[in-house]
Amino acid sequence: MVSSSSFSPAFMAAATAAAALVWASVLIGPCLAGDPFAFFDWNVEYATASPLGVPQQVITINKQFPGPVMNITTNWNVVVNVLNSLDESLLITWDGIQHRKNSWQDGVLGTNCPIPPGWNWTYQFQVKDQIGSFFYFPSLKFQRAAGGFGGITVNNRAVISVPFGKPDGDITLFIGDWYTRNHTDLRKTLDDGKGLGMPDGVLMNGKGPYRYNNTLVPAGIDYETINVQPGKTYRIRVHNVGVATSLNFRIQSHNLLLAETEGSYTWQQNYTNLDIHVGQSYSFLVTMDQNASTDYYIVASARFVNESLWTRVTGVAILHYSNSKGKASGPLPDPPNDFYDKSFSMNQAKSIRMNTSTGAARPNPQGSFRYGSINVTQFYLLRNMPPVVINGKRRTTLNGISYTSPGTPLRLADQFEEKGVYTLDFPTMPPTSGAPRIGSSVINGTYKGFMEIVFQNNDTIVQSYHMDGYAFFVVGMGFGEWTTASRGDYNKWDGVSRCTTQVFPGAWTAVLVSLDNVGIWNIRAENLDTWYLGQEVYVKVVNPESATKTELPPPDNLLYCGLLKDKQKAQTPHGTNSSSSASIVYVRDKLLILMLLFAVLAVIP
Ligand SMILES: *[C@@H]1O[C@H](CO)[C@@H](O)[C@H](O)[C@H]1NC(C)=O
Ligand SMILES: *[C@@H]1O[C@H](CO)[C@@H](O)[C@H](O)[C@H]1NC(C)=O
Ligand SMILES: *[C@@H]1O[C@H](CO)[C@@H](O)[C@H](O)[C@H]1NC(C)=O
Ligand SMILES: *[C@@H]1O[C@H](CO)[C@@H](O)[C@H](O)[C@H]1NC(C)=O
Ligand SMILES: *[C@@H]1O[C@H](CO)[C@@H](O)[C@H](O)[C@H]1NC(C)=O
Ligand SMILES: *[C@@H]1O[C@H](CO)[C@@H](O)[C@H](O)[C@H]1NC(C)=O
Ligand SMILES: *[C@@H]1O[C@H](CO)[C@@H](O)[C@H](O)[C@H]1NC(C)=O
Ligand SMILES: *[C@@H]1O[C@H](CO)[C@@H](O)[C@H](O)[C@H]1NC(C)=O
Ligand SMILES: *[C@@H]1O[C@H](CO)[C@@H](O)[C@H](O)[C@H]1NC(C)=O
Ligand SMILES: *[C@@H]1O[C@H](CO)[C@@H](O)[C@H](O)[C@H]1NC(C)=O
Ligand SMILES: *[C@@H]1O[C@H](CO)[C@@H](O)[C@H](O)[C@H]1NC(C)=O
Ligand SMILES: *[C@@H]1O[C@H](CO)[C@@H](O)[C@H](O)[C@H]1NC(C)=O
């Protein structure tokens, strides 16, 4: 394998200029039959940044914070060589990417051994039959609280139509609560049995708030500016990558036309603001239809908290028209005024429907999978409780079990027939008695079954739940305790299919999922503190008939650890030296290098 960094700087400059052309050659190259490949070379390392005016350690990818947006298309093969330049182990997980038949690439501890510090590991997966807006992030050790996240934009293939006109631009916006304490310090706070407390702010694209109020925002903070042209329509993809805070998103004087969420096209409706919970992603179409008398505020403010105490937990960026006549000033646009009442937010969530008539990754309409008429074959009610103390440690539980990683990835243990690593006995219902416990208990999913999962939130804050390997249909939400009668209120027709759903406190959310993807898949709280303290479970889905045919074999570069650590060969330090290069495309085939040369020669007069 030859990395682009092994070329001379002069050659690289020319090659970068010709990158688009090279890319075209790769796409049409006769040497690559089938679906195209996209190559990424990432160096994950620490840097110092001061997003809220206080210098702190953050995690960058190729020196970027947030990391680069991975701009890819349905069915592409993605190859990401990740160099871990941190001082602790690393895994990158690809939230919402389904890795069909290939949980080996999921990047969580149940499927992968961590990449040791100083080592690199190459992920390879196909983005099969997916479109939409997702993000990746480091899944271990609370690292997401320090950065290391970035967008995954999966474009539709040209032959598939999209239920809206081509936007004039595509903008990715990461919003999230932020602490000025570093991630190791936050981890220690949790290990010491304490809560994290109120965040220090909300970042937008890694930057602090615009100084909309001189008392609240100190001078000298760098803020995000989104530059737009009047009259144009932009697709704005917003991801809540934060630790634990639900955020209300709004753009002053502009409507947000909701178009897509986590891979499903929605019924297009205007919102003046939308609640975006931790781990969720939305695409809005925003038309620049104002007169630009000033710039406009883009706001993400903490939800369901006492605003007068949480004023600093507000992200503010600037929407700047090219013909703008001045700076934004005055108060921020109002958030919903419903501190005591979460029904506005729940009703808003229920108003998000799937557009059943449009195709998504495939031409057949999204609604052609009639989930509402499929019989449920497995039922799980997963109850989240407020943190409890188990063996002297503060932990979180689902159905009375606080998950602990057994040290050997579950999928790896299965592959090498190591018994006793986990138990396949996760309870279908919350226990009615017995003390909460720590364990590595897994849900036994039936291949091709149809599972109903009800998340019941007994805590006092909103939780988001995410499932890897799948999208689930969000069919219902309600306050109080779920009962079988709650099924009468399910949306059996146009519930949206996504990978992360919110569950309001004292309420339930029901999802339906078709277990057609073999592997071992993580279900977790996306709220980082809740997850860190044990709120996750895995679902094992095996095809009893032909395990070898339906699942991809482990990759050649499989890492070993835990009970299998003796199989691991040492990795010689290789230093890709790609850290300083912004190049994301590297070529690994002599023929392609020749094509690259010709491409460069063709553009240099
Ligand atoms: C992403 O790639 C598509 C082509 O695959 C291109 O049309 C689009 O401009 C790219 N988007 C961004 C934001 O670079
Ligand atoms: C590490 O990167 C090198 C290229 O720099 C590559 O040849 C090797 O396969 C990578 N290692 C793994 C385990 O992916
Ligand atoms: C993280 O924060 C702790 C406590 O403030 C500090 O001791 C430590 O040096 C910090 N680590 C880095 C790498 O900044
Ligand atoms: C700035 O915020 C402070 C504290 O919330 C508030 O008292 C003050 O009225 C605000 N100033 C302006 C100009 O809005
Ligand atoms: C959404 O709002 C825009 C104005 O910002 C308007 O032009 C458009 O018709 C609205 N769309 C729908 C579906 O209501
Ligand atoms: C622009 O719109 C604002 C708000 O609608 C209005 O107050 C203002 O007078 C308009 N300015 C111009 C120059 O039309
Ligand atoms: C919010 O906090 C302030 C200051 O502590 C308090 O006076 C106010 O009553 C609180 N508001 C609500 C709605 O609880
Ligand atoms: C639904 O999708 C169709 C394309 O099949 C599109 O024409 C229509 O505008 C969409 N409707 C809404 C409300 O988003
Ligand atoms: C679903 O279950 C009902 C009642 O048990 C049964 O009559 C029906 O045939 C089943 N439908 C399918 C598609 O299996
Ligand atoms: C798991 O479920 C399968 C059916 O899907 C069943 O055959 C198997 O016995 C179950 N395993 C355990 C440990 O319950
Ligand atoms: C939690 O469960 C207890 C016991 O069922 C109930 O009394 C309480 O109201 C619940 N709290 C929430 C926030 O759901
Ligand atoms: C990386 O590049 C630098 C400068 O070109 C060189 O001195 C160093 O040896 C390289 N490191 C490795 C591990 O190849």
UniProtKB/TrEMBL annotation:
It is an enzyme of class 1 (oxidoreductase). Keywords: Oxidoreductase. Its EC number is 1.10.3.3. It comes from the Eukaryota. This is L-ascorbate oxidase protein. It comes from Dioscorea alata (Purple yam). The lineage of its organism: Eukaryota, Viridiplantae, Streptophyta, Embryophyta, Tracheophyta.
